[in-house]
Amino acid sequence: MTQDEKAKRQAIIDASRRMNALGINQGTSDNISVCHGEGLLITPTSTPYDSMTVDQIVHMAMDGSHAPEQKPSSEGRFHLDIPSIHYMIAVDGGDNIRCAPNATYGTPELSRHALTALEGRFACLLDHHGIIAIGASLANALWLAVEVEALARQNHGCLQIGRPPLLPKDEIERVRLKMAGYGYADA
Question: Which residues are designated catalytic?
Answer without folding.
Answer: 75
